[in-house]
TrEMBL record:
<dbReference type="Pfam" id="PF00005">
    <property type="entry name" value="ABC_tran"/>
</dbReference>
<dbReference type="InterPro" id="IPR027417">
    <property type="entry name" value="P-loop_NTPase"/>
</dbReference>
<dbReference type="InterPro" id="IPR013563">
    <property type="entry name" value="Oligopep_ABC_C"/>
</dbReference>
<dbReference type="InterPro" id="IPR017871">
    <property type="entry name" value="ABC_transporter-like_CS"/>
</dbReference>
<feature type="domain" description="ABC transporter">
    <location>
        <begin position="297"/>
        <end position="546"/>
    </location>
</feature>
<dbReference type="InterPro" id="IPR003439">
    <property type="entry name" value="ABC_transporter-like_ATP-bd"/>
</dbReference>
<dbReference type="Pfam" id="PF08352">
    <property type="entry name" value="oligo_HPY"/>
</dbReference>
<dbReference type="InterPro" id="IPR003593">
    <property type="entry name" value="AAA+_ATPase"/>
</dbReference>
<keyword id="KW-0813">Transport</keyword>
<feature type="domain" description="ABC transporter">
    <location>
        <begin position="3"/>
        <end position="257"/>
    </location>
</feature>
<keyword id="KW-0472">Membrane</keyword>
<protein>
    <submittedName>
        <fullName>Dipeptide ABC transporter ATP-binding protein</fullName>
    </submittedName>
</protein>
<keyword id="KW-0547">Nucleotide-binding</keyword>
<keyword id="KW-1003">Cell membrane</keyword>
<dbReference type="GO" id="GO:0005524">
    <property type="term" value="F:ATP binding"/>
</dbReference>
<keyword id="KW-0067">ATP-binding</keyword>
<dbReference type="InterPro" id="IPR050319">
    <property type="entry name" value="ABC_transp_ATP-bind"/>
</dbReference>
């Protein structure tokens, strides 16, 4: 057995309250094995303890963490290993790939420096030998022009390329175990597919084992041999991937599988964890939309260009959005999909004038938003709002939730006085599933899903008619994602809201959208009603996007 975790407990010291030391138990007696040349997946919601469990292996935990139990790696108990012994193992025998490559790669070092470091430290290579091996590693992970890319800095590469560099760094010393902590969560479906296939191929060629941490069961079903399901710091189920998907035993495992949006089913609401555990059935009564509802937003030939430096004095035009046109009806949702760099986010920000447009027309009630100025534009702004991808970055950390909700009402003169605005804030919090006690708290006191609910409530303070949702659920785990998607549908039914829903997840887009716009390199390549596009896409690019969607365990080839 390569790795054996036995009765692992991890607690965090939380200071003293009333003279008593406080400890929070995050992992409560977890046990599982990782055999040689196999892939074991750790799955569960945010806060389930899966990342803490994995980071305990190499003690990559904060200084206030306390570990008990046994972590046997090739017979050695890593809980008893000293700092020097752990440093010799890190990067050589056990390596890690993390979720966000930009926070893992050093921004002031070139790619060459970061790949060469473990080669020189652990294998004693010279700089020249390490550079030659670094070039081979970049080629192995699929980076084009590897010799030229060695001199690049992380910010000069796309997200998918950064993740490949992280994998190259991790594989530099041919580790026996690779720990991959949510390595594909922030990537679009085609890049995610490439990274998954790359990791599976490298696992076989290097004869290494993979501990794969994810909340996405679709990805887990395709890549893993064994699945360990965790909740609240405990193992709820540990079984081969085939049994987890075809015959799950634990109610929580069944609930996780039921939460996932599907390309084949069309429920009116997504099941959430509590629904499934309580035995409530999924609703299939899909409410028909009015095909003749009035058009609230008509976009024609929307363009956005950026001017990039070229040479010492020159510059060149980069066309990020090349003439996008569509109509959005009242109470309808337009899904916008495409790979990273397709222009979908730039399009959304440009029609909101968070980027100044390069041309085109955006008609709202017959008036062109792109040519408004002054008080007219301020008035229109309250009617078209945006929810961003990252709920951690979109709320002011110095404002209480009460201040966050009251500020837009004060700016736009909504509510007769402070008491009325406070009452509206409380009502909106309740509408998004939070209570009045949240008003006095700060954003850091909430989970990611709760913060996204607060961001939605902030938009609703202005009584908007159109919401632009830019990857608004992509950072959330499956159960919280289901709750937020159900909430968005409820709010749409209640207030008649129209949504522009930007996402790289086609299963989510299918659930929430009435029509889909497919973008590639700034152009619209296909536009059709959702059901028709999913059933019979016309363009090869759309078919490739659909083919890249993880579908869970489909059986292994003989």
């Amino acid at each position: 057995m390569l790795l054996s975790i036995q009765d692992l407990k991890v607690a965090f010291r939380m200071g003293k309250v009333g003279g008593q030391a406080q400890r929070q138990l995050a992992v409560k007696g977890v046990s599982f094995d990782v055999p040689e040349n196999s892939t074991v997946a750790l799955v569960g919601e945010s806060g389930s303890g899966k990342s803490v469990t994995a980071m305990s292996i190499l003690n990559l935990l904060p200084s206030n963490a306390e570990r008990e139990g046994r972590i046997l790696f090739q017979g050695r108990d890593l809980l008893q290993a000293g700092q020097r012994e752990l440093q010799a193992i890190r990067g050589k025998d056990i390596a890690c790939v993390f979720q966000d490559p930009m926070s893992s790669l050093n921004p002031v070092f070139t790619v060459a420096t970061q790949i060469c470091e473990p080669l020189m430290k652990h294998l004693g290579m010279s700089r020249r030998q390490a550079l030659a091996r670094a070039e081979e590693l970049l080629a192995e992970v699929g980076i084009p022009e590897p010799r030229r890319r060695l001199q690049a800095y992380p910010h000069e590469m796309s997200g998918g390329q950064q993740q490949r560099v992280m994998i190259a760094v991790a594989l530099a010393c041919a580790p026996k175990l690779l720990i991959a902590d949510e390595p594909t969560t922030a990537l679009d479906v085609t890049i995610q597919r490439q990274v998954m296939e790359l990791m599976a191929r490298l696992k076989e060629s290097h004869r290494m084992s993979l501990l794969f941490i994810s909340h996405d069961l679709g990805v887990v079903g395709e890549i893993s041999d064994q699945v360990v399901v965790m909740r609240h710091g405990q193992v709820r189920e540990n079984a081969p991937v085939e049994r987890i998907f075809n015959d799950p035993q634990d109610a929580y495992t069944k609930a996780l599988l039921a939460c996932r949006p599907s390309l084949t089913e069309n429920p009116a609401r997504l099941m959430v964890i509590d629904d499934h555990i309580a035995g409530r059935a999924a609703s299939t009564d899909v409410k028909a939309k009015d095909a003749n509802a009035p058009v609230v937003l008509e976009v024609t030939g929307l363009r956005k260009s950026f001017w990039l430096k070229q040479g010492l004095f020159g510059k060149r035009e980069f066309q990020a959005v090349k003439g996008v046109s569509f109509k959005l009806r009242k109470g309808h949702t337009l899904g916008v999909v495409g790979e990273s760099g397709s222009g979908k986010t730039t399009m959304g920000l440009t029609l909101l004038r968070l980027h100044e447009p390069s041309g085109g027309q955006v008609l709202f009630e017959g008036r062109d938003l792109l040519r408004m100025s002054g008080a007219d534009w301020l008035h229109m702004r309250r009617r078209i709002q945006v929810v961003f991808q990252n709920p951690y970055a979109s709320l002011n950390p110095r404002f209480t939730i009460g201040q966050t909700l009251r500020e837009p009402m004060e700016i736009h003169g909504i509510g007769a006085d402070a008491a009325e605005r406070q009452a509206r804030a409380v009502a909106l919090l309740e509408r998004v599933g939070l209570d009045e006690s949240a008003l006095a708290k700060y954003p850091h006191e909430f989970s990611g899903g709760q913060r996204q609910r607060i961001a939605i409530a902030r938009c609703l303070t202005l009584q908007p008619e159109v919401l632009v949702l830019d990857e608004a659920v992509s950072a959330l785990d499956v159960s919280v994602q289901a709750q937020v998607l159900n909430l968005l549908k409820d709010l749409q039914d209640e207030f008649g809201l129209s949504y522009i829903f930007i996402s790289h997840d086609l299963a989510v887009v299918k659930f929430i959208s009435d029509e889909v716009l497919v973008m590639q390199n700034g152009d619209v390549v296909e536009q059709a009603p959702t059901a028709a596009l999913i059933a019979a896409p016309r363009e090869e690019y759309t078919r490739r996007l659909l083919g890249a969607v993880p579908r869970g365990y489909q059986g292994r080839p003989a």
